[in-house]
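hey so i finaly got around to running the thing on Glycine cleavage system H protein from Candidatus Cryptobacteroides merdipullorum. pasting the sequence first so u can double check i didnt mess up the copy paste, my clipboard has been acting weird all day
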Amino acid sequence: MSKIVDGLLYSESHEWVKVDGNVAIVGISDHAQNELGDITYVDMPVVDDEVRAGEDFGAVESVKTSSEIIAPVSGKIVACNAELEEHPELINEDAYSAWIVKIEMSDSSELDSLLNASAYGKLVG
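ok and heres what it spat out for the 3d tokens, dont ask me to read them lol
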């Protein structure tokens, strides 16, 4: 059974979002990392890139497959987790502490379309 954290928001494409003021901290869910298997590479955007909700901005590669990372919100990338460049397996170890990017949101109302922990649990359950 995959771990789902209360207080986070989730997209149907299995990204999680932690809201910190006007910044969305984004990673992939425990369910997603379980499905992918051993993660070998994380393809991330660069700081100052603009992303649009629903569009891919990177990918997570594993020994089994590659999966696009879909932006849950629109905005500007303000940070990338450089630690994942050397240690992508951190996502397998704890998907909820291994954030991938931080996005300064241009429209926080987009958060309304994301799922809470209960709804995400039903989606993956």
